[in-house]
Amino acid sequence: MVQKKKIKTTIVSQKQIAEQVYDLWLETRLAKDAHPGQFVAVYPNHESTLLPRPISICEVSEDKRRLRLVYRVAGKGTAEFASYGAEDSLEILGVLGNGFPIDKAKGKRVFLMGGGIGIPPMLELAKRLDCMKQILLGYRDKDLFLQEDLARYGDVYVATEDGSVGTKGNVMDIIKAHGLAADVIMACGPMPMLRAIKKYAGENKIEAYISLEERMACGVGACLGCVCRTTKVDAHSHVHNARICTDGPVFEAGEVDI
Questions:
Q1: Average pLDDT for 226-255
Q2: What are the φ and ψ backbone dihedral angles of 103, each rounded to 5 degrees?
Q3: Mean model confidence pLDDT for the chain
Q4: Phi, psi of 81, deg, nearest 5
Q5: How far apart are CA 81 and CA 187, in angstroms?
Q6: Which of 113, 159, 158 is nearest to 133 (CA)?
Q7: CB contact at 8 A, 258 and 235
Q8: Which residues are within 8 A (CB) of 107 and not within 5 positions of it... i.e. 6 or more apart?
Q9: Which helix (H) or strand (E) holds 226?
Q10: Burial zone of 254 (CB within 10 Å; 0-12 exposed, 13-18 middle, 19+ buried)
Q11: Which alpha helices (DSSP H) does the chain contain, by range?
Q12: CA distance linking residue 215 with residue 141, whole number of Å
């Protein structure tokens, strides 16, 4: 197991790529240990915001010296991050969590399904999978952040809530509209989307791995503030719970009660 480290990083670049969505590259030695589906905890510099913000890893540079984080501004902490530029520094703790099981996709047809700010983790996953990839992306509107990046690694299908681009609706509507099929699903997005994916996977006997989003405090499993209900007894707490930050954020869909 790779030891978690809190280290100072340098911002290489940052730009806004959609409404309230920012694209941040950090220079950090943690990049060499990053796996698709994992995340880092980013610490605000301002003293009024003490807790770190969990942000999923979007991409790792080819030389494994930089991490790309794509995040949405949702409060004081992320608003602070958005104010920084090249050469500024941030402290991060990482790498955290368990990512997607890449070996489960070998030689199979795979749906990579991302909704909203659950889209960024799909990029590094798409890069590392060597299989038939169908990438299903759900957006609010025509602000299709990361679509072009993902299109380099598989067939991309888009749904928008307002119907401005692609299929009107969500990622599940894409499957119906295009008559798609897969052997394995790997997904990240809002809870209603993940519930629908779990139901679909169960009805069609498809392996599914879903990344859960949750508010976190410590990020390392000590505070038990980010638990989800599971179908099995957790070895740590001896109840039907799992810690999203350490046992997840990626779970086999049948393991969690969502």
A1: 69
A2: -60, -25
A3: 90
A4: -55, -40
A5: 26
A6: 113
A7: no
A8: 131
A9: none
A10: middle
A11: 76-82, 121-128, 147-151, 171-178, 191-204
A12: 25
